[in-house]
Amino acid sequence: MPIAGADGDPSIQPIDGVLLLVEHGEGVVERVGHELERLADDPARPPEHRGRVVETRVVQLAVGLVGDAVADDEGLQQRPPDVTGAQRPVHEHVDDRHSSIIVALHRAIWPCGTATTWAILPGVSARIERIEFAGSQDAVLAARLDLPAGPPRGFAVFAHCFTCSKDLRAATCIATQLAQVGFGVLRFDFTGLGASEGEFSNTNFSSNVDDLVAAAAWLREHHQAPQLLIGHSLGGAAVLAAAAQIPEVSAIATIGAPAAASHVTGVLADAVDEIDRAGEATVELAGRTFTVRRQFVDDVCSQKVLEQVGSYRGALLVMHSPIDNTVGIEHAARIFEAARHPKSFVVLDGADHLLTDQRDALFAAKVIGTWAARYVDDTSGLAPPPAPTAQVVVAETTQGAFLNHVVVGHHRFLADEPESVGGFDAGPSPYDLLAAALGACTSMTLRMYATRKSIALDRVTVEVTHDKVHATDADGAGVDGAAPRLDRFHRAIHLEGALGDDDRTRLLEIADRCPVHRTLEQSSLIETVLV
């Protein structure tokens, strides 16, 4: 499991002094201790902060779990559902409906200051490919392609804000969420920014537009041309300008975009006069120093964004916060007025310009995903879920070798196999589901018994693993004289509460009486017919 800071893996970010590690799959818990030991003495950290990882807690979020989990010094409790998948600023987090293991460094120092904040990032994309392509000035641009578990329904390109990067928290959240609903999202650093090559001082708005066109060309060559463009702040103006050069685009979403590219000169403040007089100036933006030349100012002032909006024939979604202090909401009104139908406007109420509150970024992503589905041709080949014609209905998605829809009443999810055996790992395997049934039935049975007997049982956690073992003591031999193999389910039950030894012993006995346990131990009759 890699450890990284803000410039590393997007699923691992320091937030308010808490380093979050998010990873899918088995084995992560066993590796956590070793990584924390390494982290505590990491020479990259300031000497005064080494060795100060104080406490860790591991939270397992089960598939389908919905609800807020409030973290405090006493532990985690569940409460009724609210908005899922978002970050809360202090002492709160909500799950993202994914089976993820979240490891938080509680009261950890990274890189400085003591924090008691808990937070959870939305689950990582099923796959992230790190790619490179040549930009407008032949510089190598660093990019990430967030992909869903199965074939994408379509592709999008995300353009970040002025002097930002592809790894901005909002960009990561939006790309991740869109990947979770089936989109492939390419996000990259413009020339001279982030991990991309080139000199920022030689770039301008026009070169940013050309970088976007180059990104679309890379997608067109290696996957499919993007049908969706998403732009944040000045990136929003850039995607509006680039759309005319990417004929496959059928939908554009802007977030906090200016109606005039020249608006960006406002953040240059007094440097504009120096640039006009000396030809260039050094400016500090968000704590970083950039050299801005006259050609940049001349270029942004020559752009006609509203004319480009008026000539665009696809669907447009304008998203803006009424309290945006960087780009006022009047810019959104001008863009919306200039656009042709179909056009939509969504207020990002309470959000700041950079969508630093993860709830705002997640809301924007979910709206974009739902809206874009109406205008993007689904190229995934995904067959629709079957109707609930029986208690459980399973049908192939027609994607990959094993991916199946599972319909249980009004519940719908996917079953799959791991990548190691040719699946997409887009859902639990059949044996995972069987183990989950045993674990869920055990927990429910214990809860029912404890409630009926007034046992002070606070919480039940059940861990289930499955494997095959040789039944050396079984009657008869298997093929070629080998002992037959049996399915073995190992169940570890964690009981929390003020329980005496007699209570714990009795609850262990009751666990063996859960209906699914009995079904698995006994022989079952399976009747199969063709229809």
Features:
4-stranded antiparallel β-sheet, 25% strand, single chain, GMP Synthetase, Chain A, domain 3, disordered N terminus, alpha+beta, 531 residues
Q: How many separate domains make up the residues?
A: 3
Beta-strand fraction estimate: 15-25%
- Spatial arrangement of strands, main beta sheet: 8-9-11-10-12-13-16-17
Number of strands: 22
Number of helices: 12
Roughly what is the average pLDDT, rounded to an integer? 77
CATH superfamily of the largest domain: Alpha/Beta hydrolase fold, catalytic domain
Protein described:
The protein has 531 residues and is of the alpha+beta class. It folds into three domains: 14-106, no CATH class; 127-262 and 304-372, Alpha/Beta hydrolase fold, catalytic domain (Rossmann fold, 3-Layer(aba) Sandwich), CATH 3.40.50; 430-521, K homology (KH) domain (GMP Synthetase, Chain A, domain 3, 2-Layer Sandwich), CATH 3.30.300. The protein is built from twelve helices and 22 strands. The chain has helices at 28-40, 169-180, 205-222, 234-242, 271-278, 294-302, 305-311, 329-338, 358-372, 430-452, 501-511, 515-521; strands at 14-15, 18-23, 55-60, 68-72, 75-79, 92-94, 101-106, 127-134, 140-147, 154-159, 183-188, 228-232, 251-255, 280-285, 288-293, 315-320, 343-347, 393-396, 404-408, 411-415, 459-470, 485-496. It has an eight-stranded mixed β-sheet, with helices on both faces. Strand 18 and strand 19 (404-408) form a beta hairpin. Helix 3 (205-222) crosses helix 4 (234-242). The chain is elongated. Residues 1-42, 48-125 and 473-479 have low confidence and may be disordered.
